[in-house]
Amino acid sequence: MLEETIKQVVTNYYSNLAAINLPQWLDTLDENALICDPVGTPPLNLAQDADKFFNILANFYQKFEINQDSVFVAGNSAAIKWTMQVTAKNSKTATVEGISTFEINEQGKIIKVLSYWDEMAMKAKLAS
Hints:
Elements: H1 3-18, H2 22-27, E1 29-36, H3 46-60, E2 61-74, E3 77-88, E4 93-104, E5 110-116, H4 119-127
Parallel strand pairs: 1-5
Antiparallel strand pairs: 2-3, 3-4, 4-5
């Protein structure tokens, strides 16, 4: 798969996540995709949890941005160093950095996402 194709798939994933656009976000994923975001939490079950996950995003965040700071592509995989900036509905803000790895199948769908970041630290910033 071409490097530009992989970068575009990842960009579509992040832009639809930040836009809280569930149908387009799901379109980037294989129906059996494994998403651990962050690693250490139970994997997201797309069929059962996607609607609930996006409702939480829509109800909690006023602003949600993810910037891809560095992108490294190898084979059908990519590693992304990113920065996320959020504003909660209570107007509190937080900036978090992380790294995510993506595996993409030959059909251009994401089959695996592993994200490494401190979700609890972000939640603490938004709650205090």
